[in-house]
Amino acid sequence: MEQHISIQARRYVCIFALLLSVLAMSSCRVQFIPAYDAKIAEQIDATAKAVDKFYLTMLATSTAENEGRAFNNYTEQYVAIEVELNSLLNKNKIRPLNENSIRICEITIQLWQKYKQEHKDDNTLSDGLIKLNNKTFSDIFYAMQVAEKGKELVNNPPQ
Fold it and tell me: Are both 56 and 80 inside the same structural domain?
């Protein structure tokens, strides 16, 4: 009989410990995304504006004829924007649990380099390509901004 009580007592202790653990864990909050970073959000916005200005200026102030859109006329701007994109990537890489933002940055850099190489190879860009490239980057930067804003909302939910 004593052994039966001992086994039953152990069961009660285990059940009590399990309930206590569940209660303790339910009050904890597990976070699987990094905290919002206002500086990165500002840099995303600034870089998006730089890319938009780059393409809109090219569209408004030059033509495909007479070497107006020759690649060499835009090399400094390509480099300056790529530096900003690399900076965004590096800032996102050092933040733990930030795989999605890292991937968005990597895709952005790959596309920037691809479009830059196409411009270099063709030595010009048509109005249509300028508009398409600008729209593509606008959409990508929007995704970056939404990802960063989502981090803010998760960490500071509206009341």
Answer: yes
With a threshold of 0.85, does the pTM exceed it?
A: no
- How far apart are alpha carbons 113 and 75 in whole angstroms? 12
Residue 74 lies in a domain: yes
Residue 96's CB: how many other CB atoms inside 10 A? 9
Q: Are residues 18 and 89 in the same domain?
A: no
Three-class secondary structure assignment of 35-102: CCCHHHHHHHHHHHHHHHHHHHHHHHHCCCHHHCCCHHHCHHHHHHHHHHHHHHHHHHHCCCCCHHHH
- For residue 20, is pLDDT > 70? no
C-alpha–C-alpha distance, residues 152 and 104, integer Å: 18
- 66 and 16 belong to one structural domain: no
Residues 41-64 have pLDDT tens digits of: 999 999 999 999 999 999 999 887
pLDDT at 92: 95
Tokens 């309930």 locate to 19
For residues 140 and 51, give the distance between their C-alpha atoms in angstroms, rounded to a whole number.
11
Cα 114 versus chain centre, distance: 19
